[in-house]
Amino acid sequence: MSITLTSAGTILWPGDPGWDDARQAWNLTADQQPAAVAFPRSAADVAAAVSFARQRGLRVAAQGTGHNAEPLSSLTGTLLIETSKMRQVTVDPAAMTARAAAGASWGDVTAAAARHGLTGLAASWPGVGAVGYTLGGGMSWFGGRPGRPDPLEPPDPARGHLTGSHRARSTFHGPVV
């Protein structure tokens, strides 16, 4: 009973084709058992998924890459909003800032920054989510010397992105987004 959201996003239920892959986090030790999984592609899809959950009395939990899925409480009765399809990144080279959608990986940010001759503080692997890394996870060998990402603005889940400066908090003088 796959349901289409406002654009190309979908909601899958147990028994739908692809269900086991949909509920599986990157961290394979987490056996997630949500009531349903939404795959939004836009902020409008996120809003539609939240409204859908509210109408059906479901709780809502958001997940980017699923690297840190184990700390989530039980997902029974929960619509899991899996943001991996929301990977847009925009870079303002003059301000040396990046805006990453909720499902963007650090590899997505690095690729977008490179088109402007910039780079970012790399996570431990390009697949680490930009949001999770910015909030303190996915530390790499680059992270200790030049510093941690320094978000200047809070995430805006209603618009489906994290806005902020990802400049180093140290004396590193490279072109960092």
Structure description:
The structure is a single chain. The chain is an alpha/beta fold. It folds into 2 domains: 3-82, 2-Layer Sandwich (Uridine Diphospho-n-acetylenolpyruvylglucosamine Reductase, domain 2), CATH 3.30.43.10; 89-164. Helices cover 18% and strands 18% of the residues. It has helices spanning 19-23, 43-55, 106-114, 130-134; strands spanning 3-4, 10-12, 36-39, 59-63, 78-82, 89-92, 97-101, 161-164. The strands form 2 sheets. It has a 5-stranded mixed sheet with strand order 1-2-3-5-4. A 3-stranded antiparallel sheet has the order 6-7-8, covered by helices on one side. The longest helix is centred in the first third of the chain and has 13 residues, at 43-55. The protein starts with a strand and ends in a 13-residue tail after the last strand.
Instruction: Give the tally of structural domains.
Output: 2
Order of helices and strands: EEHEHEEEEHHE
Largest sheet: 5 strands, mixed
* The CATH homologous superfamily of the largest domain: Uridine Diphospho-n-acetylenolpyruvylglucosamine Reductase, domain 2
What is the approximate shape?
A: globular
Distance between the termini: 42 Å
Please tally the helical runs, counting DSSP H or I stretches of 4 or more residues: 4
Give, in spatial order, the strands making up the sheet with the most strands: 1-2-3-5-4
Low-confidence stretches: 140-154, 160-174
What's the CATH topology name of the largest domain? Uridine Diphospho-n-acetylenolpyruvylglucosamine Reductase, domain 2
Mean pLDDT: 75
Q: CATH architecture of the largest domain, please?
A: 2-Layer Sandwich
The helix fraction, in percent, is: 10-25%
Name the CATH class of the largest domain.
Alpha Beta
The helix-and-strand class reads alpha/beta
